[in-house]
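User: I'm designing a mutation panel for UDP-glucuronic acid decarboxylase 1 and want to avoid disrupting the core. Could you give me a predicted structure to guide residue selection? Please restate the sequence first so the numbering is unambiguous.

Assistant: Good idea. Sequence first, for numbering, then the predicted structure tokens:
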Amino acid sequence: MRRLLTAINRRMMKLLIALALIAYVASVWGNFVNMSRSIQENGEQKMEKKIEEVIAPLRDKIRDLEKSFTQKYPPVKFLSEKDRKRILITGGAGFVGSHLTDKLMMDGHEVTVVDNFFTGRKRNVEHWIGHENFELINHDVVEPLYIEGLAKRVGARLLLASTSEVYGDPEVHPQNEDYWGHVNPIGPRACYDEGKRVAETMCYAYMKQEGVEVRVARIFNTFGPRMHMNDGRVVSNFVLQALQGEPLTVYGSGSQTRAFQYVSCNLLSSPPQGNPEEHTILEFARLIKHLVGSGGEIQFLSEAQDDPQRRKPDIRKAKLLLGWEPVVCRVGHKLTLYVRCVYTVYTWYQK
Ligand SMILES: O=c1ccn([C@@H]2O[C@H](COP(=O)(O)OP(=O)(O)O[C@H]3OC[C@@H](O)[C@H](O)[C@H]3O)[C@@H](O)[C@H]2O)c(=O)[nH]1
């Protein structure tokens, strides 16, 4: 009996040991499985993180692309086939050109912009990219006669964007359409001034010889959003200098005058184009200083050679024949509107 019990106990012992062994192996195995699972999970997380890092910028790109597909364009008028014009704007991605592009697009015309992007910027017209009425071509129109030839071939009317610089340092004040100007042909400003004068000459010669319809707009000092910050003109210089707390650089005594025109006023077409509200450069410097509220002093530098001393457009003819006058910086509203316009540029630069 004792022997039987001992045998049973022994068996039980063996069984218990076997069970304990199995439990031990199972727990070791369980730990091993857990460990390898957590290693795997860790690895997966790391991998997921890496994939996410690679994918995130792609996802942003896709979102941008989707946005551009569903892009909302500025409101465009509907024009019938008969009234809708096909218009080519050379330099249409530049400062003035892009505002003209906006106006003509919103008026419902088909606009093709050709620009070599030397000074023009794609972002100035990017809000039209993809619109069915809009085309953007990167091309250098080196030869104005090419454009005149094109105008002749397709029977188009040609508008030349000329400048008040064709009057040089004027001896007639204010300057009207009939004044021939007073330009130093070998001075530092000559290339620009004479370049525009010869462009006018060629357009008129082409009109006489080939019967191409030509218009010339002599644009006076223009400012507004999309102006180049570093082109050295007085509006950009003063606004930037004031924003950076630097002295405002006035060339000469500052008694020379200009009549500044807000860019959108230019687009109502009439030669010459400008705001007949005349200010001295010193007044203008004080105005900017006051607006920006900077501590920058006014610094007088030496006078620029051949700098026109007085400039202001005579807009009587445009008013009489075309009913045109600047609407934003209108005469009579003096400083309030004028300040608002300068402020627009200031906020544009701040952006
Ligand atoms: O930092 C400056 C810059 C300019 N000026 C003065 O401010 C006046 C205006 O100078 P800008 O260079 O802005 O403009 P300008 O009138 O000389 O020429 C302008 O005229 C008509 C446009 O067609 C031309 O593109 C533009 O250059 C000038 O008397 C100039 O000497 C300063 O006193 N300080």
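For picking mutation sites, this is relevant: The two ends are 103 Å apart (CA to CA). The CA atoms of residues 76 and 106 lie 4 Å apart.
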